[in-house]
Amino acid sequence: MTPAGHRRLILTRHAKSAWDDPGLEDHDRPLNTRGRRAALELGEWLDSRGYEPDEVLCSTAARTRETWTKIAAAPLEVMPEVQYLSGLYQASPAALLEALRGATGECVMILGHNPGIAAFAASLSARPPLDPDFARYPTAATLVVDFQIESWADVQPGAGSVLDFFVPSGRG
C-alpha cells in the first residue's frame, strides 16, 4: 500500500530467456528453466515485502509475459489490471517514461527489456542503489521506487526515492 500523495513503481527486467531455438524470433523467446525459477522467486520476494502492483504494464514479448505469469503465481491480494503494450518491447527510457505517465494505478509494475530498462532505472532517482548489479540490471532485476506525486502524469526523472533493489539468487 502506498501512502496518500505517493505513487510506487516496480521496474522489472524480464527473467532469463531461452536461446535454444535459433529459428525463433527474438520477440517469441520464452523463459528458460532458470528464468522460470527466478521469476517465481521474484514473485515471492514482492509478496514478502508487500509490493503488490495494482496495474501492470508489460511488453508483449513472450519472455516478459511469462515473467509476469510466474510473478503472479505468488499469492496476490488483488489481481492487478495488466496491459500488454507492444511499445514496451525494446523500449527506450523516453518510451518507458511516456508509458508510465499514462498509468493510473497507485503501484505500477513495468516489465521490459535492456538496455532501455537499465537506463530508465538509472534516471529515476538522484541516489541509485549501491548494489553492484544495479548498473547492468541483470535479468529479473527489480527496482522499487516511490514518488511524491498525485498522478503519474507528474513523474519526473531524478525525483524518485529508492525503496528496494532485488536480483533473484538464481540470477534470472
| Uncertain regions spanning at least 5 consecutive residues | none
Give the averaged pLDDT, no decimals: 93
The number of helical segments is 4
Overall spatial form: globular
- The helix fraction, in percent, is 25-40%
Strand content: 15-25%
Please trace the helix and strand order, writing H or E for each element: EHEHEHEHEE
Q: In terms of structural class, how would the helical and strand content be classed?
A: alpha/beta
* Cα-atom radius of gyration: 15 Å
Terminal Cα separation, in Å? 26 Å
Q: What can be said about the biggest beta sheet?
A: 6 strands, mixed
Number of strands: 6
Arrangement of strands in the largest sheet: 3-2-4-1-5-6
What tags apply to this protein structure?
alpha/beta; 26% helix; 4 helices; 172 residues; 6-stranded mixed β-sheet
Structural description of this entry:
With 172 residues, the chain is an alpha/beta fold. It has helices at residues 33-49, 62-71, 93-101, 116-124, and strands at 7-13, 55-59, 81-85, 107-112, 142-147, 161-166. The longest helix has 17 residues, at 33-49.
Write the layout of secondary structure elements.
Elements: E1 7-13, H1 33-49, E2 55-59, H2 62-71, E3 81-85, H3 93-101, E4 107-112, H4 116-124, E5 142-147, E6 161-166
Parallel strand pairs: 1-4, 2-3, 2-4
Antiparallel strand pairs: 1-5, 5-6
Helix pairs in contact: 1-2, 3-4
